[in-house]
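Subject: for your reference before the review

Hello V.,

The reviewers asked for a structural picture of the protein, and I figured it would be easier to keep everything in one thread rather than splitting it across files. Below is the amino acid sequence we used in the manuscript, unchanged from the supplementary table.
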Amino acid sequence: MVELDTRLFYWIFEGWRADWLTPVMVFFSDALKSLPMRVAVLLLWFALLWRGGKARAFALWLIPVLVLTNETSDFLKAWVGRERPCVALPIEAITGKLTSGSFPSAHAANMSALVGVATALWGRRAFWGLVWLPVLVGLSRVYVGVHYPSDVLGGWALGWLYGWGTVSLANWITARRRSKLPASRSDSGGV
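And here is what came back from the structure prediction:
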C-alpha cells in the first residue's frame, strides 16, 4: 500500500508538472492563506447569513463542522505520525517544507466537509456543483508535494463524515422528533 501511495504521489508530483498548471495548483493549495481570500470568504459567509433559509443554515453549520474536522485532523496527524512527502522523500515541495503530520489532509477534509454540508441541505445538485472544489484542493496538495494521495483520500472521507453525516443526523433527529409530537399532543389532549 505504501509503495502504491508513493508511486501515485510521484505520478502527480512529477508526471503532471506543467508551467501553466503550477500556479493553478498553488492557488488551490494555499488560497486561504492570503488575506484578500480570507476577507472574500468572510464576506461570502456573512452574505449567506443575511440571505437566510438554507443559506443561513449552511453558514451556521460550517462553523462546528469545520472546527470538528480541523481538531480531528490535528489529532490524527499526531496519532498516526506519518511524515509528509516533502520530509520523507528526496523532493522539494513547491510551497515549502512542512513538518507537521501528513495524514489526513486537513485542506481536503475541510473542502469535503463544506460539500457534505451543502449536499445534506440541498441534495445531489449541490454535490455535483461543488465536488470540483475538494478534488482540486486535494490534488493540489499532492501536486505541491505536501501530501500523499492516501492523505487526501483520508481527508475527503473525514470531511464527508463530519459535513454530510452531522447535518444528515441532525435532520433525521429533528424529523423523528417532529413526527412524534402530534401523536403525543393528541394522546394528552384526550385525557
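For the response letter, the relevant points are probably these. The chain has a mean pLDDT of 90. The first helix runs from residue 2 to 13.

Happy to draft the paragraph if you're swamped.

O.
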